[in-house]
Structures are given as C-alpha cells and as structure tokens.
Amino acid sequence: MPYTFKNANIRYNIIDEKNNITANLTKSYQELFQVKQTLDSADTFVKLLNFDHSGISSNSWRRGSLVIVRNVGEAAMEVVMLIKGWTAGTPDVATATVNRVMFYIPPQEVMILPNSRMLHYNASASAGNGATLSNVVPTAAGYTASTHTLDGAINDSVTSMTVQDSDNNSNGKCEDNFFIGDYLRISNEVIRVTSVTTDDSGVIGIERGQLGSAVAAHSDEDAISWYYLNNYNDWDKEAIVATTHDGKFRATNFFGYGRTYTGGGTDVALNGLVPGSVAIKFYNPGYQELGISGATANTESGLTGGTTYQFRLAVDGGSVTEIVFTADASNTKWGGAGGVIQKIQTVINDLFHVAGSNLFQKRCMVSLVDGDVRFTSGQYLTTSAVALTDSSGSDVDWWGVGRIPAVGSIADAVPARLEDDTLLDRDGILRKNNPVFMLDRGDGNMHRPIGGSGTINYETGAISMEGVPPRASFVVSANYNSALGGGPRNGGADTGTNQIDAISARCTNSKAETYVEIFVYG
Fold first, then answer.
1. Rounded to two decimals, what is the model's pTM?
2. Is the predicted pLDDT of residue 492 greater than 60, yes or no?
C-alpha cells in the first residue's frame, strides 16, 4: 500500500579484517509503497509487486527510486524478477519478450536496488550509449521541427488538436511522443500540452498563446516543433538559447533531442535521455587586455591627475562608445578608491542604464588579471567580445600615455570560448576537466562544482538550471535513443519497458515458511 513519505536515511557498515566501509544516503522521496507477505514453498511464485507506469493499484506501483527486498523470516526465499527484452539498434527497440532473473535471499538479509530500472539487452555493447551528443550548440532559433504535423486545420479558439505522424498512416500512437507540460511551436504561436490521449487517436489537449505569443489559426499539415528558448522569457524576447541575466534557464524538452518517433507502420516513441549522461558547458566571455605586465592595485598608471582622457570601447559586436573619464587628482594608481580602474568602471556602469547608448544593457568589467588590465564582456554568449580602439573626441587620448601602450601595440582581443574537455595535470596525465561542466548525477539532479545546480527529467528532457553564468550560451552533451534512456514507458506504452515488470517470491524450504517485506520509495 502507498504512503506519503518525506525523507529516508540509509546507512550501512561493512567491517572485515582490512576494511571499514561506512556509507550514508539521505534522499527525499514523495511516497512509499510497502508489501508484506508470508511465503511457502509452493512451486508457483507469489506475485508481490507489479511496476506499471500507467498507474497504481493494490499491488502495483509506477516506478521506484529505491527498491528494498528484505527477508525477515527464518528460511531462505527465492525471488524472481520479470524484465522486458530489448534489441540493440539505431535506435534500440523494445520487444514484448519477458525474461526472468532468479536469485535467493537468506533469512534476515536484504537486497537493495538503487532504482527499478532493469532490462534484458541482446548485445554485449552498452545499452546506454545510443545516439551521442558531444558539445552541441542548441539551435539558435530555439525550436526544432518534430516528425509530426497537424492532422487537420485548427482555428484560433480550439483547445485540442490532432497530431499526424511522419508516415501519415492510420495506426495512430503518435501522441506517445508528447507529454503534459510540453511547449510546442506552430508558426509563431507557442502552445502548451495539457493532456495526452491514450487511445491512439493522436489527440492532445493544448493551451493557446503561451509565453506572450499570439493565438492564430493554423493549416492542415503545418509543422509542429519542439520549443526550447528560455521559458523564463517571452517567446520573442530572445533570438538565441541562453540563460537569463540572473543565471537561470528552463525548457520543457532537451533542445529537440531525445524525442524519437519511429513511424513506418509501427509508430513507437523512444523518448528521453540516459540517466547520468548529461553534461553542460558554458562559454567564457570575450575580453581584451592592454598588454602590460606587473601591474597591481598600487602601481601608478602614469596618467596625470585632473586630466580628462578618452578611448573607444565596443562590447559584444555593438557599435563603439566613447569612454571619457577624468583621472583623480589624488589617486592615479590602477586600484583603490578613485583609482583609474574604478573611474573607468563607473563610466561603463552608468552607460549600461542609458537608453540609446551603445552600452545600453551590455555589461563590461575592468579588472587586474595576472598583472594586466583586462576589459571583459559581462555576457557569456557565443557573440561575447570586447574591442578597444582609438578615440576621435576632443579630450586627451589615453593611448601611449604613462603605462598605457600605443593603440597599435595592445594585446589582441580574445573571443568567447569554451574550456577544454580535458587538461594535462602537473604529472602530464590527461584528465577530464570536470569542474567546468554541469554534470548529471543520474538521479535527476545536476551540479556544477564552480557554481550552479539544476534538474533534468530523463523521460521528457525538461531541464532547469540556476546559479549558472548570466546571459550565457552553452553546449550540451548527452546520450539518447537507448534502452536505458528515458522513463518507464520508453519504447512505447504497448510494448516495452526499461524497468522491472514484476517481483515474485517463494520460500525455498518445504518444511518452513518465511516472511518478505518490500519497500519501494518514489
């Protein structure tokens, strides 16, 4: 029977002559499903639990984030798990074949499974590799055409539509490729899926005119696209996939990937991503340095106090802006209150708020980096760049004054770039550059060691991130089209599943009974 549940703490100790292994696991769960059953030695197994993604009943549960089978009796028990078969392919194909995995549990012992995902695979290769994305830039437009079109025109007031698959046959099932909450795009209208039928009719419920888009009529066979511009923004605010100014991002699918629909008369949807396979890497902003060395906060700039200087600055491909500042009469050092860097930064910050300025809502930071003065874009977009050039104003040009080099001698600008996937350590060993990635833990959570966290839904591909670089472009890596990918309905609701189908058990001793408990946390 199911219970509402909040947290579970699992702790175990393994002690031998050489090792003392202690592990703790604390996770949050929403529900607990529990079964208690006496077992005898009859040759037929007692079915204890079904896993059924479509719903729950007296001995049926949707899926498990943690499965514990415990023998609390005085005799051993034999356990059988029914699992479905999969055939390796491009993509992998679920079959209706049922396979049996048999094992036994002695009295007072326990078996712990980290989740209910288990299947039979017909190849020696990995069941989790499938199609691979490696540092792929999401399509800038923010939507990707699916293999589906409208089956019949819709006006600007209906709240449902019929979806047609790519092979235009009449066997339906194409709705298996959609989930409640999906944002889709038809022409310039963004819609939200509110319901999905299960009768193979292809009908899905929709909410119209989402994310600030206008409701419109659409024609038969208009394309239906996966929409993934940042859902924190209205649909027409951005023309690029990027985080918000405060470092947030969310979308209801994984940038058009992981929604595979086979069509071809069988119409099977292979949805979702392989748990633990997602990695996201953000761009570093473009910058330009003066090309000096050894500068510190206490180093004199060589400028004259009370004199007004100027130079030109362009940020992120925008037009140049005249930066005009007056060196402080009592502080001509690079750092400190009223220092040259603070003076320049104040001018740039003020222009950020001036409508019509070429720096309007474009940030740029001035700082000392490794003994040089660096101008860094405040955006982490692929277009992030800084350009320092000569001035044409009437004030004193700062190029060639004091420690500032002539404009023709400054360092070349460095465009936006990605960190390398691997690095050589001090011993010359090539290692993965883990800290720069937002890494998927395999339990739906993501973490970036140098800042940021997020969640990923392996079935729908819905993604959310926060605390990551602001106004940032990024690349994505993941695996999909795999037997181990997606959720429990992966492979089609009518055929395969990639989780345990059922758990049954019996007592192994003809002269005794035993007692089993099953706990499924979800």
1. 0.88
2. no
